[in-house]
Amino acid sequence: MSHGVFLAIDVSNMQTVLGVYDGTRLEHHWRLQTDSERTADEYGVLVRNLLAGASNPRIRGIAVSSSVPPMTQVVDDLCRTYLGVTPLFVGPGVRTGMPILYDKPQEVSADRIVNAMAAYERTRDATIIVDFSTATIFDYVSEKGEYVGGVIAPGLGIASDALFDRAAKLYRVELVKPKHVIGRNTVHAIQSGLIYGYVSLVDGLVARIRKENKVNARVLATGGYAPLLAPESETIEEVDEFLTLDGLRLIYERNAES
Amino acid sequence: MLLAIDVGNTHTVFGLYEGPQLRHHWRLQTKRGRTADEYGVLVGDLLEGVGRPPIGGIAVSSVVPPLTQVIETFCRTYLRIVPLLAGPGVRTGMAIRYDDPQQVGTDRIANAVAAYERTHDATIVVDLGTATKFEYVSERGEYLGGAIAPGLGIAADALFERAARLYRVELVKPKYVIGRNTVHAIQSGLIYGYAALVDGMVARIRRETLPRARVIATGGFAPLLGGECTSIDVVDEFLTLDGLRLIYERNSDQ
Question: What is the ipTM of this complex?
Fold first, then answer.
């Protein structure tokens, strides 16, 4: 690690994920709550402590994807003050090497482009990325490696919270797969609706995207609920929890080359 | 005439039946804290608007416990009728094969009763309301249970409240599944995503039971999603009210 390591920071609505790369290898990763009231000094204490636990590697570069605007300044301050590095924020003006066919390219949130790049790097073919986070986000990359667009559905977590908050007689259940689709009690009925229902949403949308693009696109999944839902899905081939971090690494490399 | 009252989590629907014919129907917001006197004024005025027909009986389904007593008081005080509250001890004519039959929401039973009355065959009911509920009735007319997923409306609200960069969109079907802007991407996820959820659940239920099971949809989002789902045979907006009418008749026979 004489030349220093690279730090990837993915700020999403609920959590912020940090990954330390030595070359192409993810050496360490941590997950913090995203809280835009928290200051750069507080994040500084947290991140410095975590890095100390990883024997304080020298950081040569940082790339950040933020889908939470109020956090952007906080992370920028954190990187400059506590890590001594000016971070690269993924956004307009940053080289991605991927044509963005969105109506307004600056409207696509950074994490979606980052995921698309990391996925295409692996498949080199038409690919659908399913990101199970606060929202369930689908992105489609053509076989030529263009980011074409996507689909945004409510995430499993926020939708189930809404069910328990808004339906008077229903209560919170453990998110596990029930034995049967037809539940004979309310706990099993809700577990079925959440797990089999969400898997149906994913498989059905993938089928519709493939049909619309007349291509048997590959399917990669990432995000917090991917390990729970992917085994039940008929379309997801592979889960990579760190797809976004890996995409940040690729973008950083492409920008450092220039 | 029979007054059927379906107290759901978002709306309370009133239906006035003359025999099996639904003559009038109204929809009010379900609001915890509203009093029997307020319902008296509101419903009294709506009934006034249709010439105050004589009401011979009332059947009620409520999935909102705090409002059940309020509705009952309203019926006794303003309509001078003791309502039949669907629930334990009320004859439905349907065997309930649930671990604890008292646990099934009365709207789910009313839907199952009304659906089987039409098909007399294995049937899946999809209620696209506050929650998206699936019920399965066997070919012999037994209620075998179901599944409960978040409804389209509450899930969409959650998306707009909890995801920092997303905003409320009109609930209409976009031209393409792949959206090239955020509005179209969200519309696609809500409309095509929920249609996929329904079709996928129906396929899984059929695989677990009978491939030929018929599918009847109801609930506030049924007109929006019914056309996009390939598995729905019929949409009936008033299935729950009709089930309440049937349950009322089955209890006055005895």
Answer: 0.91
